[in-house]
Amino acid sequence: MVNYIWMAMMVIGVLVAAINGHVEVVTKAALEGAQVAVKTSLDLIAIITFWLGIMKLAEAAGLVQALARLVQPITRFLFPSVPKEHPAMGAIVMNLSANILGLGNASTPMGLIAMQELQKLNRGNPKEATDAMCTFLALNTSCITLIPTTIIGIRLIYGSADPTEIVGTTIFATAMGMTAAICMDRLLRYLYYRRR
Amino acid sequence: MFGIVSDLSRWAVPIVLLLVPLLAMLRGVNVYEKFVEGAEAGFGTAIKTIPFLVAMLVAISIFRASGALDMMTSVLAPVLSLVGFPAEVLPHAIMRPLSGGASLGIATDIIKTYGPDSFIGRLVSTMQGSSDTTFYVLTLYFGSVGISRYRYSIISGLCADFTTLIASVYVAHKLFGPA
In which element (H, E) is residue B176 found? Predict the structure, then answer.
């Protein structure tokens, strides 16, 4: 799937640029994209290093395991393949909580830690996503944010009479998305195994 | 409600940074040593994402700069406006899963042009706030553990984005009146 999408973006991009008579933009765009990617990864070094340290402490203090136990009823339904009280659960919960609170800086490192823990449970091909990873990412990309701070800030700058009035509509829309994500994840997993 | 949540956001990280070392210390953990031990893996994790992010962001960048995205928009807009989907926000809807920065730029531009309290402005605010940069998140998260086969993840992610989009348009129509 990702192979086709990736190829389509490249091929269609180059062809359209050529047809429009400005094929040279492709070269520039490719370099710019690569630069943004590397810069993003480098920026991540700082926050990931910091949060990995904190998470290690939280694990040593028994906090991650306690958190995992607390949300067990929900996570056992969502992640049947992850053993209960596994550190992956703690990291997943931390990541989703940070997402909900709109703490972007903290949520990414937590998410990457969760992925590492899930990868430890991967008994199949190490290059292929597991069921639990697919579920986790479906939840993560559709996760509710209680206060979308960035867009509220922009509404404020441009003189909105009530910058936060979109909070309710946002929560509604994202709750629908999250429901769809969970259902699609289950459905696609079922189809995936049936096809094999 | 808004006040409580915003206080919670402000306090969450400081509270974690207060409680975690304290509790670890009480458990007899050598906190400094343990922190460094965990943090060691940070550099490697971040660097590992580079090839994956480069691959994805280069493709998105080319697709966007070539004008292919604009073409997609101009083909889809007349069809979608038939079902009450305002053509003005379509570029945002298409860009949202691909690029966080670019979609925020489009949202800002729309809010500037139409005003934050217009129907279009409120709709695009809802759309921006309610969804995430699916492609970026998948690339980054899978990349950090060296996974290149995403199975059905992109489909479920895009289905969720599409549902969020429909729900945004629906709820904006309901609450903020017809455009």
Answer: helix B153-176
Q: Give contacts of A152 with chain B, Cβ < 8 Å.
A: 129
Structure tokens of A130? 């597991």
Interface of A with B in 97-156 (CB under 8 A): 97-98, 101-103, 106, 108, 111-112, 115-116, 118-119, 125-129, 133-134, 137-138, 140-143, 145-152, 154-155
Tens of each residue's pLDDT in chain A, 196 residues: 788 889 999 999 999 999 999 999 999 999 999 999 999 899 889 988 998 999 899 989 988 888 888 888 888 889 999 988 788 988 998 899 888 887 777 889 999 999 999 999 999 999 999 999 999 999 999 988 888 888 988 999 999 999 989 999 999 999 999 999 999 999 999 999 998 7
Distance of CA B31 to the CA centre of its chain: 34
A25-44 residues touching B, CB cutoff 8 A: 25-26, 28-30, 32-34, 36-38, 40-42, 44
Amino acid identity of residue B88, one-letter, is E
ipTM, 2 decimals? 0.90
Give the tokens for residue A161. Answer: 């009479």
